[in-house]
Amino acid sequence: MTDIRAGERTLVLLRHAKAEPPDTGPDVDRRLTARGHADAAAAGAWLARHGLLPDVVLCSAARRTRQTWHDVALGMTGSPPEGGPAGTSPVVRFEAAAYEAHPSDLLDLLRTVDPAAGTMLLVAHNPGISLLSALLDPQRADPDGLRTTDLVVHRTTTPWSDLAPGAAHITHRHTARG
């Protein structure tokens, strides 16, 4: 796990990359487009450049979020998710509860993370992920929410199990494009 300096923890919220239109089949099975794959890899490269390699990844179980995570991992490391940064692998949890989740449901998921984790990545969907960002930092959240492959970095000194509304301020925003 990442060394937690002075109890600081980093939460990176990532809205999944660009997916096929909703009319292509069941929503949960929608795939990423070619642009989505490129953008997700660019998101991973941005995370690596900024030293934001996750200890834990919580990812919706929907196909487009799983594909987003796979491409993010490739962008971070140049290899599949099993071969993580510097020989380590993040703990990856594919969470069915993150699909179509309300912000309070996502917050409950975050609270279940190992307290030793210094950096966590959540890959999920709108509107839940945008509303979660606004819940954690209402003053700095983008009123338009997260676009596809938007990354929002929140920092907190609160233990994951105690994370509450207003307790994680936004330090960075980035829209990844490949």
What does this entry look like structurally?
By secondary structure, the chain is of the alpha/beta class. Helix 3 crosses helix 4. It is 27% helix and 21% strand. It has helices spanning 34-49, 63-77, 103-110, 128-136, and strands at 9-15, 56-60, 91-95, 119-124, 150-156, 169-175. Helix 2 (63-77) links the parallel strand 2 and strand 3 (91-95). The chain has a six-stranded mixed β-sheet with strand order 3-2-4-1-5-6, with helices on both faces.
Give the total of beta strands.
6
Q: What's the alpha carbon Rg, rounded to whole Å?
A: 15 Å
Indicate the mean pLDDT: 92
Span from first to last CA?
Answer: 29 Å
Query: What string gives the helices and strands in order?
Result: EHEHEHEHEE
Q: Report the total helices.
A: 4
- The dominant shape is globular
- Largest sheet entry: 6 strands, mixed
Query: Which stretches are poorly predicted, pLDDT < 50 over at least 5 residues?
Result: 1-5, 83-87
Relative helix content: 25-40%
Strand coverage percent? 15-25%
The chain-level structural class is alpha/beta
Strand order of the largest sheet: 3-2-4-1-5-6
Keywords:
178 residues, alpha/beta, six-stranded mixed sheet, 4 helices, 27% helix, 21% strand
Write the layout of secondary structure elements.
Elements: E1 9-15, H1 34-49, E2 56-60, H2 63-77, E3 91-95, H3 103-110, E4 119-124, H4 128-136, E5 150-156, E6 169-175
Parallel strand pairs: 1-4, 2-3, 2-4
Antiparallel strand pairs: 1-5, 5-6
